[in-house]
Amino acid sequence: MANAKDNKFDARLRLALHARTHGIRAAAEAFGAGRNTVRRWLRRFVEGGRAALRDLSRAPKTCPHRASPHHERAILKARAQVPCLGPQRLKDLFALKPSTGAIARVLRQNGLTRKPRSKRQKKNDLRAIKARYKPFERLQADTKPLYDIAAYWSQMQGLALPRQQYTMLDVKSGALFVDYANELSTTYATMATERILGHLRRWGADLDAMVLTTDNGSEYGGADRHERQSGFHARIETLGPTHRYNPPATPNAHGNVESSHHFVESELFDLEAFRSRRDFFEKLSTYQRWWNFARPNYSKGKRTPAQILEEEGIDPRILLLTPADLDYMFRHGQNHTRVGPHVPVDTAGLLW
Fold it and tell me: How far apart (Å, rounded) are the C-alpha atoms in residues 246 and 253?
């Protein structure tokens, strides 16, 4: 887990940003790295941006023992005669000189191999790793555009409904929190995250032990080229959690929250008809509570997020946080939706 790609990428990104802001020597001292190491990652970052901080392929650029064109033609000819045979049987039957591995490589490169079987064991192992997390130790935050949902488009246009969903999901339990706004912006991403983290803190969650991951979207400061004392990243880390960016082009790194977006679209937006903005938030509140308290998660032993939290000794009422209208909060200068101790406000009721 310590060698995960997001940990490596996050360390390299922090190193490069620190070096670009404070210099190579200061970065080397701050991160305990050699100056040449700092120079290498800084150079890659300057030349190629965040994508250049990913691990490079370690595959050799040449293959001295590659089968010759003559042998490749012989392999392909033999396979064409008996398409059902694998590399070992082809080698034995046609007395092919290349090794079994070379024959398999030629078949694979020419699209003559069967589709590999599903790696179910690998998926199970990953679920086992996630199961070892503590509740709210790993959070995933992401945004979902709503204007590309066909069944929702006309309602959104006619009733001035939200266009963006701001999502936060707990990896351990699958607990879901959603907020909505008309725009995609750093301001709204920060507001939504602050609101949810503040709620979790009031219920006793340890923010200092949390790791919050996001993609490299501009709303999360993913386009920053220098260290900043403001913005989403700086603000969230002042609250306690460690904020990490996922490496570029790794959609599976956020598989949990991305899956929730799929289910929200198919189970809610494709089915429901909204009568007004107030009706929208009432139905979203009902859906979020159904997700957290009644909807079994089949990848987590058919348990609900509330059941998982209760098994871990956490009061499930921590999940009673109503989705917020971030546009309303911004216009009225509100930074939370709590009235009294642990009593969530009906945000929809505030609007009319």
Answer: 7
Tokens of 20: 């670009």
Nearest to 326 by CA among 188, 178, 131, 136: 188
Backbone angles phi, psi at 303, to 5 degrees: -105, 150
Q: Per DSSP, what are the bridge partners of residue 143?
A: 166
Tell me the three state secondary structure of residue 132: coil
CA pair distance 197, 210, nearest whole angstrom = 10
Amino acid identity of 264?
Answer: V
pLDDT tens digits, 170-207 = 999 999 999 999 999 999 999 999 999 999 999 999 99
3-state secondary structure of 213: strand
Question: Whole-model pTM?
Answer: 0.74
- Per CATH, which fold does 135-351 belong to? Nucleotidyltransferase; domain 5 (3.30.420)
Question: Residue 138 pairs with which residues in a beta bridge?
Answer: 211
- Boundaries of every domain in the chain: 5-55, 69-109, 135-351
Residue in 342, 220, 337, 323 with CA at minimum distance from that of residue 281: 323
DSSP sequence for 73-120: HHHHHHHHH-TT--HHHHHHHHT--S-HHHHHHHHHHTT-SPPPPP-H
In terms of DSSP bridges, do strands 242-245 and 211-214 run parallel, antiparallel, or are they unpaired? parallel
β-partners of residue 242 are: 211
> Which amino acid belongs to residue 37?
T
Contact 246, 239 (CB under 8 A): no
**H helix or E strand, kind and range, residue 142:** strand 138-145
Q: What is the pLDDT of residues 269-328, one digit of tens each?
A: 999 999 999 999 999 999 999 999 999 998 898 999 999 999 999 999 999 999 999 999
Contact call for residues 213 and 244 (beta carbons, < 8 A): yes
